[in-house]
Specification:
The protein has 316 residues and is an all-alpha fold. The protein is built from ten helices and two strands.
Length: 316
């Protein structure tokens, strides 16, 4: 049996090896990260300060904004650090920690999108009983259940990762520690890890996917039966933002993990991983703010109040 040298640090391949691109990429992704934090934080502040937005629908939207900030913060700061230092070294412990939080926020987000589908189902199909079904205790329990499930999901993967050994110097073909990429550089038998990923993807991933999209079959059937054109338009508008976010998140994830391999798969993987790991948290607040009339009205009101306060301070 050949002697194997244990590896305690891994190398991330990053987005580009060209030194001339490091500073431009650093500035671009720094801007994207700041815009992501600003957009999602603005949504949270509007929901907390505007009484018209303190409903279950916007409570879930505020939670989604918080998850987006955490989701983006797991990968982008590390990527910015690597652009700055150009070393791209990460310890095994730090890599597994990043995987834990990335999986946690990803599962939390798709689970929350399923909860938001149920909220839209109740609001459109059972409007008279909406306040009774979706009272605040129910909303809090749904969020807590989502977070607990999302916390337990990556724990199983992490416990199995801790049993693996790493003795290869092959770089991870990504700008962050992704679970499939980490398994590729392990010198241990990863059959159980891969099997667990497939089982969880089928059971939990398939279940969450069904809970997200199945309510919309009933929702669309209910909307088509509405006699008032104004009611149909209002019902469609309340669902369009949520559906847009769902399709963006699932579309980028599915394309990243299930696309047909090309001659240079690493380049394709890096580009698609940027979309679902970095750009999706930026797109979500833009989608909800631009497609939601109540959010736009609340934002305009907040800006007007801010201008009034500034004018008062000037005159003082």
């Amino acid at each position: 049996m050949e002697n194997q040298t244990m590896v305690y640090n891994l190398v991330l391949s990053g987005l580009s090896d060209l030194p001339s691109l490091q500073l431009p990429l650093f500035l671009v992704f720094l801007l994207v990260y700041l815009m992501t934090l600003t957009g999602n934080l603005l949504i949270v502040l509007l929901i907390c300060t505007d009484s018209h937005l303190q409903t279950p629908m916007y409570f879930f939207l505020g939670t989604l904004a918080c998850l987006d900030m955490g989701y983006s913060s797991v990968t982008t700061p590390r990527m910015l650090f690597d652009f700055h230092t150009q070393k791209r070294l990460i310890s095994i412990q730090a890599c597994i920690t990043q995987i834990f939080f990335f999986v946690f926020f990803a599962v939390s987000e798709i689970s929350l999108l399923a909860v938001m589908s149920y909220d839209r189902y109740v609001a459109i199909c059972h409007p008279l009983h909406y306040t009774q079904i979706m009272h605040w205790k129910t909303c809090v329990r749904l969020i807590l259940g989502t977070l607990i499930f999302s916390m337990l999901y990556p724990v199983v993967h992490v416990l199995l990762l801790l049993t693996l050994t790493f003795c290869r110097l092959t770089p991870l073909q990504s700008f962050f520690c992704d679970l499939p990429q980490l398994l590729l550089v392990s010198c241990s038998d990863t059959f159980i890890n891969v099997l667990l990923i497939l089982i969880f993807a089928i059971l939990f991933g398939g279940g969450i996917f069904a809970l997200t999209f199945c309510p919309y079959i009933i929702i669309l059937n209910t909307i088509m039966k509405m006699q008032s054109k104004a009611m149909r338009s209002k019902a469609f508008s309340t669902c369009s933002s949520h559906l847009t976010v769902v399709f963006i998140f699932y579309g980028t994830c599915f394309f990243s993990y299930f696309h047909q391999k090309t001659k240079d798969p690493s380049a394709v993987d890096k580009v698609t991983s940027v979309f679902y790991a970095v750009l999706t948290p930026l797109v979500n607040p833009l989608t909800y703010s631009l497609r939601n009339e109540i959010m736009k009205i609340s934002l305009k009101k907040a800006l007007c109040d801010l201008n009034i306060l500034k004018e008062k301070n000037v005159f003082k």
